[in-house]
Amino acid sequence: MLLIRVRGPFNLRLSLAGAASFLPIARAPDVFRVAVDIDGMPAVVSISQAPRQLFSVRASSIPEIDEASLKKITKRLVWSDLDLQPFYRLAIVNPIMRPVVSSLTGLKPLCPATLFEMAIIAITEQQLSLAAAFHIRNRLISRFGARSGGQLRFPSAEILAAASLEELQHCGLSHRKAEYVKELASSVIQGALDFDALERKREDHIREELLAIRGFGEWSADYMLSRGFGRPDALPAGDVGLQRVLGHYFAHGRRLTAAQLKRKLAPFKPFRGLAAYYLAVHWRLRR
DNA sequence: TACCAGGTAAAAA
DNA sequence: TTTTTACATGGT
């Protein structure tokens, strides 16, 4: 077991409930359990929050685990480099945002285990409802995922690149999306696309690279910057879900345009995407 | 039953 | 160059 200290306020239970509020599942888990690959070895990482700002992290099914690697993946899963305090300082002086952050103190968006998985998530969620995309992803996982410690982990780029278009379509992807997934997986294993190297670049550079991927438009690039790369200001302004939710807070329930959405979130720069997430979770949990 | 859902690339005009 | 179209599944 490994203990990790977190910077600033963080409430894991609340963050899990926030994440679950977007999915068609009955109840949020209280332990963050993710099947992953650590240095090529399958493992299940279980993160729970001890009193105060400590996590306990366990990795099963590996006899010897490199502590640094485990720490690295954990930091990514819980976005631990993000300190919420500067965002809260901006939020509490805003009459609409103040009650939202005070009822959701410690909420953080949780990240998927890998950027590759996040990229596939972005593709599956294009245009479809989150519920539909959720079921499609689950079919991808049960069809192509490898088992580690009794849990299925998200299929690797190698597996998805080798899958046939028919198999991918059979999971519920359109023919076009099946092509996107296969091509993206191929360029990852060929090294033409290196998400880990991208992570260290500047935000605008990452965005440009993402837009060059076939199947990635503005929405997917910003969504991935926000949810995968953990850039708190990145904001998919064309997002229908956000436009509707923000409409409840800023426009008497009328859906906002992309430009209006940006304008309403301008006071929270450089945390506009995070502010949008707080409003979306607040709306879904109706706290 | 339709219709819309946290879009995009490619065809058509 | 700009506009229109096809497309997957799930919930209402």
Q: How many helices in DSSP terms?
A: 15
Stated plainly, the CATH topology of the domain at 115-227 is called Endonuclease III, domain 1
- Looking at CATH, the homologous superfamily of the domain at 115-227 is Hypothetical protein, domain 2
Strand content is 5-15%
Q: Compute the separation of the termini in Å.
A: 34 Å
What is the average of the pLDDT values? 94
Biggest sheet character: 4 strands, antiparallel
Estimate the global geometry from the Cα principal axes.
globular
Strand order of the largest sheet: 1-4-3-2
Poorly predicted residue ranges? none
The helix content, as a percent range, equals 40-55%
- Please state the second-level CATH architecture of the domain at 115-227: Orthogonal Bundle
Helix/strand order, N-terminal first? EHEEEHHHHHEEHHHHHHHHH
SS-based structural class?
Answer: alpha+beta
CATH C-level of the domain at 115-227: Mainly Alpha
Count every beta strand, where a strand is a DSSP E run of 2 or more residues.
Answer: 6
Radius of gyration: 19 Å
Describe this structure in words.
Helix 5 packs across helix 12. A hairpin with a 4-residue loop joins strand 3 and strand 4. The protein is of the alpha+beta class. It contains 15 helices and six strands. It has a four-stranded antiparallel sheet. Strands 5-6 form a two-stranded antiparallel ribbon. Among the domains are: 80 residues, DNA-3-methyladenine glycosylase AlkA, N-terminal domain (TATA-Binding Protein, 2-Layer Sandwich); 113 residues, Hypothetical protein, domain 2 (Endonuclease III, domain 1, Orthogonal Bundle).
